[in-house]
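Q: Is it fine to ask for two folds in a single conversation?
A: Yes, each is treated on its own. Send the first.
Q: Here.
A: Result:
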Amino acid sequence: MYEVLLTDWRRFNDWSNGNDKPQAVNSDPVNHPEHYTKGSQEAIVTIEEAIHDAPSVEAGFLQGQVLKYLLRVWHKDNPQQDAKKAQWYLARLVETLN
């Protein structure tokens, strides 16, 4: 699955321009939402890399949710709401690790 995402990512970016940071992807609210494409790679790639070694599917899911909301916190209309959502998922993650 990672290879498919990487291929998709490269298809939407021009790596031949020599820039360290990929060019912005055209806004696509389903496949490449603007609030997930602000960094040097899409949030989905960052999340997949982070949860790779999670001890369970549940823990990986919860960690992914925490990351999702934190990665987009400054890119949507209500940063406090996204921070609270991240906090909610983090509390559940901590519970699963006990």
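Q: Second one now.
A: Result:
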Amino acid sequence: MQEAFSPAVYILASKRNDMLYAGVTSKLPARVHQHRHSTVRGGLPANMACSSSWFEQHATMEAAIAREKRTKKWNRAWKLS
């Protein structure tokens, strides 16, 4: 497994209203913490409990961003499985 601070694509799922959020970061644990504590602009709405449903690490940020763009085109069923 790659280092925890390598570029990663992730999908978070809200527990309350069934929202999905896909993003990319180089510091996944810190980013998930930010989402859970509503400190990310443009992410999940404030006070919305979320869980990590999927992540994938990459060697470069460019590769992670390209994968994120493809991930956002997936249909909902793929994102949840």
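Q: Anything structural to flag on that second result?
A: Two points. The chain has three helices and three strands. The helical segments are 28-36, 61-71, 76-80.
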